[in-house]
Amino acid sequence: MRGLILALSLALVAANQLSFTPEFSPGKTYEYKYEAHLLGGLPEEGLARAGVKIESRVWISPIAPDTFIMKLVEPALYEYSGIWPRETFRPASKLTTALAAQLLTPIKFEYTNGVVGKVFAPPGISTSVLNIYRGLLNILQLNIKKTQNVYELQEPGTQGVCKTHYVISEDSKADRIHLSKTKDLNHCQERIYKDVGLAGYTESCTECEASGKTMKGAAAINYVMKPSTTGSLLLEATATELIQYSPINILNGAAQMEAKQTLTFLEIKKIPVEPISADYLPRGSLKYEFGSELLQTPVELLRISNAEAHIVETMNKLVTLNMGKAHEDSPLKFIELIQVLRVARYESIEALWDQYKARSDYRTWLLSSIPAIGNHVALKFIKEKIISGDLTSFEAAVALLSSLHSGAADLESLKLVEGLAMTPKVKENPVLREISMLGFGSMVYKYCTEFPSCPVELVKPIHELIIRALERRDYDELISAVKVLGNAGHPGSLKPLMKLLPGFGSSANNLPHRVHVEAILALRRIAKREPKMIQDMAVQLFMNKELHSELRMVSGIVLFETKLAIGLVTTLAQSLLKESNLQIASFIYSYMKGITKTTSPDYSSVAAACNVAVRLLSPKFERLSYRFSRAFHYDAYYSPWMVGAAGSAFYINDAATVLPRTVMAKARTYLAGALVDVFEVGVRTEGIQEALLKVNDSPATDRITKMKEAIKAELSDWKAYPSSQPLASAYVKVLGQEMAFANIDKPMVEHIVQLANAIDIRAYGKKALDALLAGYTKQYSKPMLVAEVRRIIPTSVGFPMELSLYSAAVAAASLEVQASVSPPLPENINFAHLLKSDISFKAAIAPSFSMHTYAVMGVNTVFLQASLVSRAKIHSIAPAKFAARLDMIKGNFNFQILPVEGVDTIASARLDMYAVARNVEDLEAAKVTSMIPAVNLTHLSKQNSTSLRSRMASSVEDSSSASSEILFSKTPNQVASKLKVPKAFMWKLCALSYTFGIKACAELESRNASFIRNSPIYTVIGNHSFALKVSPAPGPAIERIEIEVQVGDRATDK
């Protein structure tokens, strides 16, 4: 009996001493089979998917205590584009060969008690390949607790530090340990992702995602291990990760990225793995690191051997294809030009500029594409060209504005912009100075959005600028600096702004009223990050009845943007009941009343609080008229789609003013769980108000008469008006950032008058007339990267998943004008000569437009792409020819519209969705698969489909015997829905005019995936096209449309 008890005791002790942590014994090499794939598409089978796969054997061997070496043996890469699961992965043999040197290089990593530490690799391994190793190491990451079998923790991994749930069970009979861990990618202490382009200006809407999600991710790994006293032997690990995304709530259907990994034990070898003879440098940890994919556009994959030659070739094609007419595929070529410029050396860009800057057509394409590079290289180029004087003021302003707001915010870019704003060349130009200063603030905001713990030293130069402006009493410079801080929104700027506010700063009362207003408005961006702090300040300002009423109302605007709690709203309501200033009472009451009707999730709690407040206030303030200050708020939000829009407008009056002191309006949109203040505009009329107040009272007291008298008085006393006092000011914000502002003051008006007086109107008129008589021809094209919005997210496999939206456009136009005058004009021409001439001219104009928009979800690296792509193309051309004869002597005016040949489609649009897989080593083998497989419905149509045709004809008899005919046809495919095959829809509408000899037809074709699920995302998926076509009407050809007008004594003869 004692022996039995002793045996059980020893067994229990041994069981407690078992280690569940994976162990790799010294002197041994553990061989595993590794397979991982990443596929993107819709969850249903029978539709297209795109993905990538990697297979390899893996050797793991210890080389020192807690340090191990990992080597891939016989790695192979595969790519997939096809109908799932009908087709199979295709070997990417050329790509595997090209990456073999990197994939076969062993790496080192620290591994202690199941936790992966630092990763070491030679410099020859790129970040992208090292991330593949991280995907493998992610499987080995195990935080095992000896005393618990079920527990949760925030665990580091490739995607960041996320909530992970562990379940451990032991199968004593099979001598196995089964461990399962699941990771919630929506609850992460630190989520790794990268926003590129305009995505940096969006704000997450936490309340919007309370009832739905636009993105949801989870991962699960199941382990089978054999335990021992020294450590467990990892026998098998199976990992699955699923990320769903939809721009309009995943409950309505979503695309998904599914990753699967398997690691299977094969054998133990006694041959150790040796590192290569190279320096193994620290390359970070298990967390994914971003590399060259940040510069890689997901729209196109290019093999670039000579960047400079590639740029020249691309520009030659763009210039040739867009000579006066926008080519249909030029937007894609423009994106290609941007992509090549991103990988080009700075010296190459400089050389290209020197070569082509004198050629206007090439200059336009270069100046449009270089700012879109989106990094410090573009800023450095623009800065140097501004300093050297190579750019005109207009070119510099456009390029600088584009580069500042579309580029990445990093420390190097911030230093460049800071230096640019202080250069003498920029200081001399008010427009460039303003753009660079405001752009610096925007860059700080984007940088601090990515790195929330950004130091206050970033905005120190602006703080110092405020101090210097206060010392010099330079209030224009002071307001400019305040606006920069408003764009930056850094909490560290709160103290400098407080010093400018009455009640907080000792010398603030001596500052102009407009400085106070701008300082309060600058708090709005800071309130996004520190709402409680700004809330306390705004309440104090609002409650201070000694302040100007406009300051108190502006404080109210800031206060409501902090999303007030019900207690504070009630406090405001009680304060308004005792308020003697009806302007303030009307403003806050109307604002509360507007918010009560809101349906936006982010203001739902404020709306509930305002409902209570409005009930308290309505008996007293409901009947106030519109002559008092008002605030308006309207919005609409559709929760099932997580889509909405909101608009606010404010006008602030004063009892003694004729015009509103301030007018502001703002528009906001909600989409995909994010919100953005799309546009905002504001106008202040402080100087005009003072001018109106100086007008002496007259018997006529209506506003129009007062305004007329004020204008007369202002013009008469203009020279005595102070230069520092603006008549009015205005600002414009886009995406929540102030882009431009202007003060209409005495120096500006005098400058405009000086420019107007300097222009010799007669000389310019003579020059323009000579050009028309000689024949004027002009061809113009302008490209533009309309939008670049990217979010890059790592996956468990180590490949990046990208969600992006690209939109590029090219506008072009050609103009030909030829004029003649009889009799010939004298050398010293004046306007009277034209009134005694017979003028004839012909003109041909052909404006055209082409635009491509791409929405992409999938894998995007510099060597491989496997993505789902939605491509929208819009192309339009509207040529016209005119002729006119103006007989000024006889008063006869003849106008002709001439026919245009060679154009049948004046507008077309097409939307396609497809899966694409390609690699840079074998671009010719790229495979594109339509999202919906082709289905032959011919035999079904013959048996089941019906054709509905109707004809409507009408004729109108008049002096010109005009007639018209409208043809309409609609062919729905009803059998497609019944048999669960893609629906095809065709629609055509034609209008015929015999009077003008023209026939116009609108055609629509659509084939979508709504047969699977009736939801918006499935309706969009497919192929859709629209075309507007024109052609000559049947019958006799119309040579021209002629309009003749006779004036004067001979008018009755016609």
Automatic annotation (TrEMBL):
Pfam families: Vit_open_b-sht, Vitellogenin_N. InterPro entries: Lipid_transp_b-sht_shell (IPR015819), Lipovitellin_superhlx_dom (IPR011030), Vitellinogen_b-sht_N (IPR015816), Vitellinogen_open_b-sht (IPR015255), Vitellinogen_open_b-sht_sub1 (IPR015817), Vitellogenin/Apolipophorin (IPR050733), Vitellogenin_N (IPR001747). Residues 1-15 form the signal peptide. Residues 24-663 form the Vitellogenin domain. One of its GO terms (molecular function) is lipid transporter activity. Precursor of the major egg-yolk proteins that are sources of nutrients during early development of oviparous organisms. This is Vitellogenin. It comes from Oryzias latipes (Japanese rice fish).
